[in-house]
Amino acid sequence: MNGKMKKPIRFDPSQYHRRSIRLRNFDYGQPSAYFVTICARDRECLFGQIEDGKILLNRFGLVLEEEWHRTAQIRPGLKLDAFCIMPNHIHGIIILTGSPLSADRRGTMHRAPTIFEQFGKPTSNSIPSIVRGFKSASTVGINEIRSTPGTPVWQRSYYEHVIRNEIDLEDVRQYIESNPFKWLEDKEHPANLQTS
Predict the structure, then answer these.
(1) Contact 125, 27 (CB under 8 A)
(2) Is the whole-model pTM more than 0.85?
(3) What does each C-alpha distance from 164 to 45, 168, 193 come to in angstroms?
(4) What is the tens place of the pLDDT at every residue in 9-37?
(5) Is residue 168 part of a domain?
(6) Which of 11, 20, 38, 94 has the largest count of CB atoms under 10 Å?
(7) Domain count within the chain
(8) Residue 14, domain member (yes or no)
């Protein structure tokens, strides 16, 4: 030991605190259109590859495609719009219509929806619970294929944007549709990720 005492390292909460990008006091279960981006854990290219501006899905990518479409089948009051699977992330538009339960769900118990999702108390048809359900189901499907139960597939959070009007909706649709053509410039492309 050299006789010098090391200065204690101070905890900087701003460095480790995960800030929410959600709009404060906004009800993410209300009828509206939402743009979401969900990234694979560590931005690993798990779902396929881009060739000539098109995604060639592998088995894991096919699981995502199936689970994304199943989302609209199992949740009332939800429509899916533009959607794109990229090698290490997905983009999609989810539209909450607020429509009542379909005829085939009449016998199930129905409670009035909670207005705001609170930590630990998810509401069934809010964007956070929809994304959580998709991530969970697709993780199970992918881990069954690769025999790795419990292994994370997705990063912890996701990006969301409340679509404000028809112009915004068209811009987001165009972004999603053109994304595979811009893969080499995409900030999620492995060559463009900054290492620390």
Answers:
(1) no
(2) no
(3) 31, 6, 30
(4) 443 444 433 343 444 555 555 678 999 99
(5) yes
(6) 94
(7) 1
(8) no
- Tokens standing for residue 131: 């994304």
CATH number for the domain harbouring residue 124: 3.30.70.1290
Domain boundaries, position 42: 29-100+120-184
Q: What is the mean pLDDT of the chain?
A: 80
For the chain, the distance separating the N- and C-terminal CA atoms, rounded to the nearest angstrom, is: 31
Residue 44 forms part of a structural domain: yes
Rounded Cα gap, residues 156 and 135, in angstroms: 10
Q: Which residue has the tokens 């939402």?
A: 34
Side-chain half-sphere CA neighbours of 57 within 13 A: 13
The token pair that represents 80 in the structure block: 């899916």
Average pLDDT over residues 154-181: 94
In a domain, 80, yes or no: yes
The amino acid present at 27, given as its one-letter code, is D
pLDDT tens-digit readout, 142-155:
999 999 999 999 99
Longest dimension (CA), the chain: 78
Per-residue pLDDT reduced to its tens digit, 56-74: 999 999 999 999 999 999 9
Q: What does DSSP assign to residue 121?
A: B
Are the beta carbons of 169 and 93 closer than 8 angstroms?
yes
